[in-house]
Amino acid sequence: MSRSRTIIIGTLILLLILLARDHLARSVPADPYNPGYNYTRFLQNLGTDTETYLTGLAAQPGTDPAEQALITGRLRGTPESICTARTLFEDRAAANPLEKVLLLETQASLGCENPRMALLSAAKIWDEQGIHWRATLLRDILANKTKPAFSTHSVPDRIDSLRLQAHGKTIMRIGNDEITITAQDVVMSQTDRTLRDWLSYQVYDPFRHEGSLLRTFSERLEYSENDLRPDIGWHEGARNDEIRSIAESTFIAGTGTLAAQYNDTWYAADHEGIFRYAIPEDKIMYPTTRFLGPGIAMIIDTHGINMLEEPAHREGATVVYADCDHPGKIKAALDLESEDITVVCTVDRFLHLLLGHTTRIMGNPPITATDTGALIGRRPITIARGESIIVMNSSLFYYDTPTLYFQTLTQAFPLNTTYVTVMGSGGTAKLTTLARVQNARIIAARVYTREDYEPLARWLSEDPARKAILFHTYAYPYGKTLMDQYPYQTTYQDPTPEFR
What we know:
Layout: H1 3-26, H2 40-45, H3 50-59, H4 65-76, H5 79-91, H6 97-109, H7 116-128, H8 132-142, E1 149-150, H9 159-166, E2 171-174, E3 178-181, E4 186-190, H10 225-228, H11 235-247, E5 250-254, E6 257-262, E7 265-269, E8 274-279, H12 281-284, E9 290-293, E10 296-299, H13 309-315, E11 319-322, H14 327-338, E12 342-345, E13 362-363, E14 367-370, E15 373-377, E16 381-384, E17 388-394, H15 401-409, E18 416-422, H16 428-438, E19 442-445, H17 450-461, E20 467-470, H18 477-485, E21 490-492, E22 498-499
Parallel strand pairs: 1-8, 4-5, 4-11, 11-12, 12-13, 17-18, 17-19, 19-20, 20-21
Antiparallel strand pairs: 2-16, 2-22, 3-15, 6-7, 6-10, 7-8, 9-10, 14-15
Helix pairs in contact: 3-4, 4-5, 5-6, 6-7, 7-8, 16-17, 17-18
């Protein structure tokens, strides 16, 4: 065979190999490990639809184009949009190793091309960062042999311990804990409702938006200016912004958490790669979640303390300040505290699970500026055994938080509790009416809206001896307003009451 013919045949073979490789790459489907979630359910709950939402997203200044393409592809079910998103993520220049590795994981998750090189490159970076368990998991995904380790036990019940503490005691004090956040602190919170909020079209690049914390969210699409109160702000974004302004602390949004599915439940990983912290499925169903393999997800828009244990260790957080509205979040909060990371719950529906535990975790405590930093908590009030308390209850989430707390607490320390069922916003009027009739000096309630605020503010203003124990309140403008206006008459959910 002549040399020229050999060269021609070799060239043809090389071309065939390249064509085959390109075919294999292009034959990878878009979003191959997505469980098939119906993302439009969220939009229906907001009273909107796909095209209206996508129009709003496109009109929002600063929208991340890659995220926009991904969300478009998932809402419309168009693979070509997802492949466009992959290309945009691939073309992005990373500012640091974390952004680089999450971009690589994102590329691998979206399909459209063979994920091998992206996953291997990501694994190499995790190894260089000393996070070997994550590197191993990525290589296991490539080898189709993922076997995540789970620890699914729940927070232990400590009601017997609480009974021992309260036995024979006649006075209880709550709201006495405090911490001070200073300029030396690194405060971590969730990405959702701090740097981004996909429901209200605020889908920015989290690595280029960290200096600007959001203060209003999906409420801005429906509330009047008087009800929205953007000057006070909402959720974790506004409260973290306040802490940072007072304390001059460093803010970090935890992102890139891995989650794995066990039976029908998703669990977030801890810093050793054990999947421990249960996640509500609606927080996995965000259209920005990346699915790396069957039952393996990488979460950009973290929401809650259950998704922050691993990032807190990875990024060196000294304080974690985020949502505690799920048992998995309480479990993570306890673990973080045991690892010498201070934990504060912005919202607190399940904090009653910590009654009887030894902890300093507080639920929706107020923030006060001091000479040394941002004081969190310290609103003590005393309650006598058997004292009358009017307690809010509801079939609606969050308005039931006072009842969850007092139904647990009174198993150890008897009180004369009257539970009043409300239908939602404005229900505090029922509580104040009954408190006047019964001459009760304490109300336990949630304040979410102006309609919740006004009756309770009037009742407190009538007598300085009256007290309000507030739950799931300080994250919202009118809840914060009430607690700030009446610092000596309001307190927060305290899982470690003191008895004497």
